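pinging the channel bc i need a second pair of eyes. not urgent but kinda urgent?? the chain im working w is below, pasted from the shared doc
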Amino acid sequence: MNERETKLAQIEQNQADRQRLIDEGNKLNAELANLDKPKLRHGDYGYGEAKWPRLTLKADSDKMFSAGNNCCEAEKDEYQNHPTIILGNIFDDLKRNSEDLEEFEVKSKRTSGKFRAKLQSVDKYGATQPLGATPELIMWLETECGHVSIEEAAEIHQKLGQLIATAKRRAK
């Protein structure tokens, strides 16, 4: 092989190496983009990029159906109209709310305070009675913390929903 052929072979090898690095970079960029996308499950709800409420009806490796804003759409690898801010999962919410909860307490991580809630029975004069003593229920709330984190507020929100569901079941 003469010097010219050697240099041409080296140029070809450099171009091949360059293309391989570009391909690897593109692959890594695609993987990073996928890491930023939420992993959706059947029943996840939240808001899409257009800030419209969305509910994922089915999420699998092939297609994803999402509903909201008076429409249902099937899309493949397209997150524009699917929840990108996930607020919860309707099936997790239904399961949690089907389980009785009579009281709970959330301690603030930022302050020494806590948030407490519990169901109580009241008589016809409004005096509290042992739970179940009368058909009338009230929810007793007490807070000793001036503020809570978003995570703590979400936990309080979920547990208040569970308390309300318990009260509605017992009111029947």
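so Residues 76-80 have pLDDT under 50 and may be disordered. and DSSP finds three helices and nine strands in the chain. — does that match what u expected or am i reading it wrong
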